[in-house]
Amino acid sequence: MNRFENTRKASIFGIAGNLFLLLIKTIVGVASHSQAMIADATNSAGDIFASLMTFIGNKIASEPSDDSHNFGHGKAEYIFSLFISISIIFVSAKLLFDSVLSLIEHKTFIFSWALVVICVITILTKLSLYIYTRKLYKKYKDLLLKSNMDDHRNDCFLTACTLVSILSSLLGIYFLDGIVGILISIWIFYTGIKIFLESYNVLMDKSINNKTKEAILELIKKYKEIQKVDSIYSTPIGYQYIITITIYLDGNMSTFNSHKIADDLEKDIEGIERYC
Question: What DSSP assignment string belongs to 153-210?
Answer without folding.
Answer: HHHHHHHHHHHHHHHHGGGT--HHHHHHHHHHHHHHHHHHHHHHHHHHHHHTTPPPPH
